[in-house]
Design goal:
By secondary structure, the chain is of the alpha+beta class. The chain has a domain of 89 residues. The protein contains 2 helices and 5 strands. The chain has a 5-stranded mixed β-sheet. The chain is elongated and about 85 Å long. 17% of the residues are buried.
């Protein structure tokens, strides 16, 4: 069932009040919606059923692992984009992905250091207990 933009807006308000409203732009191939993700900052593609505005609606973001995706979003059609603009989005996304991957690696590195410090602290505490037992038992 194809819906108009007004019906999509009403469906979002009525059935998906917690979904984030995101403007969707029709790609040059007329088969994909392009959206700028409010969670990870990347541009995601979703099927557009040959440019039918009613093919928009509730979708799950395609955020990379480690991105702070909190919920689904609701696509509202808002025109189309040119191929040159889509290429520019893809270049921006490659830069953003590199930045995200660096942030994820830094987070993993920090978490690994924290795990190692906790293990070393637990070992030191255990060694202290053993030393106290030996002293008191001697």
């Amino acid at each position: 069932m194809s819906m108009t933009i007004a019906q999509l807006e009403q469906d979002r308000i009525t059935n998906h009040p917690n979904a984030v409203r995101v403007l969707a732009y029709l790609a040059p191939n007329r088969m994909d919606w392009i959206v700028s993700c409010p969670f990870c900052g990347l541009h995601h593609q979703h099927g557009a059923a040959d440019g039918d505005p009613g093919s928009a609606g509730l979708r799950s973001p395609h955020c990379p692992p480690g991105a702070l995706r909190t919920q689904d979003y609701y696509l509202i059609p808002d025109g189309s984009i040119a191929a040159a603009t889509l290429d520019k989005f893809r270049k921006m996304d490659r830069r953003r992905l590199r930045t995200l991957n660096r942030e994820i690696e830094q987070r993993r590195s920090t978490e690994a250091i924290q795990r190692r410090l906790r293990r070393e602290q637990a070992f030191a505490e255990a060694a202290s207990v053993v030393a106290r037992e030996r002293i008191s038992g001697a």
